[in-house]
Amino acid sequence: MNVPTAATRGIAVDLATIRAAHARIAPQIHRTPVMTSRSLDEAAGATLFFKCENLQKVAAFKARGACNAVLSLSVAEAARGVVTHSSGNHGAALAWAASLRGIPAWIVMPANAAAVKQNAVRGLGGTVRFCEPTVAAREAQCAAVQAETGATLIHPYNDWRVIAGQGTAALELLAEIPQLDAVIVPVGGGGLLSGTSIAAKALKPPIQVYGAEPAGADDAAQSLRLGRIVPQLDPRTIADGLRSSLGDKTFAVISSRVDGIGTASEEAIVRAMRLTWEKLKLVIEPSAALPLAVLLERNLPVAGLRVGVILTGGNVDLDRLPWQT
Amino acid sequence: MNVPTAATRGIAVDLATIRAAHARIAPQIHRTPVMTSRSLDEAAGATLFFKCENLQKVAAFKARGACNAVLSLSVAEAARGVVTHSSGNHGAALAWAASLRGIPAWIVMPANAAAVKQNAVRGLGGTVRFCEPTVAAREAQCAAVQAETGATLIHPYNDWRVIAGQGTAALELLAEIPQLDAVIVPVGGGGLLSGTSIAAKALKPPIQVYGAEPAGADDAAQSLRLGRIVPQLDPRTIADGLRSSLGDKTFAVISSRVDGIGTASEEAIVRAMRLTWEKLKLVIEPSAALPLAVLLERNLPVAGLRVGVILTGGNVDLDRLPWQT
After folding, report:
1. How far is B318 from chain A (nearest CA, A)?
2. What sections of A26-155 are H helices per DSSP?
3. Does domain A15-60+159-311 have CATH number 3.30.1830.10?
4. CATH class of this structure's domain B15-60+162-311
5. Which of B28, B271, B277, B281 to mutate to test the interface with A (most CBs of A within 10 A)?
6. What residues of chain B score a pLDDT lower than 50?
7. Model confidence pLDDT, tens digit, residues B217-271
8. Domain A63-153 class in CATH
9. How close, in Å, is residue A224 to chain B by CA atoms?
10. Prediction pTM value
11. Most exposed of A136, B7, B249, B325 (fewest Cβ within 10 Å)?
C-alpha cells in the first residue's frame, strides 16, 4: 500500500496512469524518432538525445495529452464535445483528437490570433470561438460554451488526463535510451514537465529532470524559488508556447519532483533554434529550442552527462524566421 | 549462369553488389527514417513514403556512395588518399568518408564556391583545391592532384562503387515499405537513379522507377528521348545538385532500367520544398524537392499509387530561402 506523502498528496498521475495513457493513445500517435548530433553535443557540452515531437501529429507533443483526454471521456461526455482556450498547439491538438472520435471541439482564441492558427483549427474540424485577449475573457467564453453545449473543458496543461498524456513522450524516450542521466524539457504551463518528471523519476529514480524557460518569462523558476505560483504577467519572449503561468496541479508536481529550472536569453533561443535546423535538419519552433538554449548558456549542471531533450514542436511561420531581420 | 543482355552488358553493379555495399557501410551511416503525410498525399495525388536522407551523415545520400568507394579501396590505394571535384554534397561526403579511414581527401572546387561549402569540407578534414569554373579546368586539377599524390579519383556519380553505395537507400526503403508501386528520385548526374533502379527492379521487378529533374536542366529526359547523352550546357535551376550531365555508366543503367523522367518548373520546386518543410517539418534543399514538385504538376503517371521518394539532402542556406524575395 502506498502511503501518500507530501510529495504525492493530491497528485493523481503516476507511472501506471502514464502507461495506461500510452496504451490508449499509441494507435493514434507517432512513435517519434530520437536523433543525435556530434556538433550539437560539442556546442552543449553534453551528450544529447533529441526526442522529435516536432514530427508528432499536429507537429507537437500536445497531441499526446489532448488525445489521452478525449479518449478518456465516457461516451455520454464525448457526445457533448470538448472545449478549450488556446491559440497554439493545444487548440490544434484538441481539434485533431476530437476528430478521431468524431465529436465537436470548440477552440476559444483571441480575436487577434493569427489567421494561420485559426485556419489550422478549422482545417482539423474544430470550431473557433473568439474572445478578448485576457485571461478573464477566455475563461468566460469557455464557460459560455460549456453552459451552451455541455462540452467538457480540456485545459491545456492543468488537467491530470493531459499531464498523463504528455508523460508518454518521456516513457518512449527512456525505453529507447535507458542510459540517460538527465532530461530537460521546456516549461510554459508545466504539463509536459509534470508528465515527464513523474514518468522519468518513476522509471529511473536517480535521473535528473529539469525545466527550461525563457529568461523573459521565468515564472516557473520564480515559483520554484518562492514556493508558490508566481503568475506570468508580462512575458517577453519569442517562445510563444511558453508564456503561460503554472497551474495548481502542475505546480504541485513540479515543486515536488523537478530538480531545477534553467533559463535562456532570447539570443540563445534563436541561436539554438537555428543550430537545430542546421545540424539536425529539423524544423522546430522557438519554444522547442529552450533546452538547447539553456545548455548553450551553461545554465544547468549537466556537463558531460547523457541528456534527453524533448523537441516539443515544429509550428513556425516560414515567412518570418527569427534570425532574419 | 547469367548471360549478359543488352540491358546488363557493361553494367558492373547488381543487387548482390548493392547488398555488399550496404553491409560495408551500414556501421557508418544512419538507417534513415521513412515519413508520411496525409496532406502531402493529397497534394500529390498518391500515397507517399519519404526516405529521409536529409537526416543522413553530411545531410545527404552522397555519404553512402562516398563511403562505399572509400571502404572498397585496398590498403595501399587508401594510403594515397582520394580526390574528387565537387562544390556540393559529394565533396563533403568524400571528406567525411576519408576521415573514417584516416586518409587524405582533396576536393577540387571552383574558386568562386561559397565559403560555407569550402568550410564544410575543411571541417570534415578535407583539403580544398581551387580551379577555374569549367569542366576542363576541374578535370585538369583532379589529374594534377592524382599525378602529384597517387590519390584515387572518386567521381561524384560515374563510378560503380558510388552507384552501388547510392543504391543502398532504395534497399532500405523497400525493406521497410515492400508494398511500393513506384520510386521517384531526383536525377542530376544519375548516380542515385542508377543505384535505385538496379536495387528496386531486382528486388521487385514490376516496380516503376522514375527520375525527377528541373525543366530548366532536363538533360536526362532529353538523353533518354534521344538515346544518347545530351550534355547539360546551360542549367537554369535553383536545384544546385541537379545541374550535372549523365555519365556513360549512369546513362547505360538509366536507359536500360528507368521507366521515365518527369520534369518540374522552378515554381513547383520552391512550392514542394516549402510544403516539405511545413508538413514534414524537415529541412530539405531544393534538389530534394524534385520528386514532390513533379508530382504536384502531375508530370508522372503514378496517380493513386504507393510511391517511395528519396529526400536527397538538407544542405541549404538558412539566410536565403527561395520563397523569400
Report:
1. 8
2. 38-44, 62-72, 75-79, 89-101, 115-123, 135-149
3. no
4. alpha beta
5. B281
6. 1-2, 6
7. 999 999 999 999 999 999 999 999 999 999 999 999 999 999 999 999 999 999 9
8. alpha beta
9. 34
10. 0.94
11. B325
